[in-house]
Amino acid sequence: xxxxxxxxxxxxxxVTEDAQLPQVKLAGLIEGDPETRRALLAACEKNGFFYLDIxxxxxxxxxxxxxxxxxxxxxxxxxxxxxxLDDRQSDTHGYEPMATSxxxxxxxxxxxxxxxxxxxxxxxxxxxxASIVKTQREIFExxxxxxxxxxxxxxxxxxxxxxxxxxxxESHSEDRPSRSTLSVFRYPKQDEDAELSGLGxxxxxDLGTLTLLLCRQWGLQxxxxxxxxxxxxxxxxxxxxxxxxxxxxxxxxxxxxxxHRVVPRNDAHRxxxxxxxxxxxxxxxxxxxxxxxxxxxxxxxxxxxxKFNMFRQPHHIQESNAVATGGMERADTLxx
Length: 336
What we know:
Strand order of the largest sheet: 1-2-10-7-12-5-4-3
Strand content: 15-25%
Number of domains: 1
Radius of gyration: 19 Å
Structural class: alpha+beta
CATH topology: Jelly Rolls
C-alpha cells in the first residue's frame, strides 16, 4: 500500500548552533557569472559544503524530486522480502537493507535502507536495475538527467575557476564508464521505548567528485574545525552540495572533502519519523587515477571499492584507518 511522502514542514527542534554554510545560486553558475564562480570556488576551498539555490535555475528538478519521493515512499513501505528481490549485492545499483555498515555510534550498525540506481546501467537498459526503476523509468531518468546536469554545471565552473592546471572535464568524459549513482535513503521511524538497534549513518567523506543532496528533514551533520559536529539546516529551494575525495585529490588538495554523518536531532537518539534523502553522486571515470590519502596511485574505481569495503568494517578498524573519512579527521577532530 502506498504511503504519503515525507512532510514538507521544516519544524525546528530545540538544539544548539547549526552549521553556517555559504549559498551559491545555480542560475549564476549556468550563466557563467564570474562573481558566482568565485563564490563557488571559495565555498569548495574553505567549507567543502554549500547550499545550492535551485530556484530560478532548474525549477522542474524540484518538482521531479517531489514525484520521486512519492514513488519511493511507497517502495520502501513494501514488505522486506519484496524489497530483497531487488538486492543486487552492489554498491551502485539495487536495494540495500538496513544494518549492512557501521552506524553513527560504536557497536551499533547503520539505521537506513537505500535504493541505488547506476547512471550507466540506466542508460544501457541493464536488466540489473530494480523493479521500481523499470516501472517508473520516466521519473528516474528525469531525476538523474537533471541532477547530472546540475553537478556537471558546478564542475564546469569549478574547472574554470581552478584554471588549466586541473582539467576536471577530462576526468568525467561521457564516453567512459563511471560509478556515478543515484541513491535514495530512508531512515525508518524508531519506537522510543524499544532498544536502540541501529543509529543513523556513520561519519565519512564521500568518495567521488560532487554530491547533490536534497532533503527536507533534519539529521545531516558536518564536522567543523572549531565547533565539532553541527547540524545542517534544511533550506527550502536549495540542495546541499559537497566535495568528495576524488575532487579533492584531482584538485591537488585545494578543495575540501568534509566529514559528515546522519543522526536523529533529539535527545532520545531515535528517528521520530521516516526520514528521506535523495543523493546524486557524481564520480570520475573508472580509469582515472590519483594519489589517495595513503600515497598510493589508485583508480577511481579502486577508491570507490576501498571506501565501501571500509564502511562495512567495525568501528575500531575504521578509526585506525584513514580511508573512511578520507584522512580528514581523527577521533572526531579535523586534522587537515
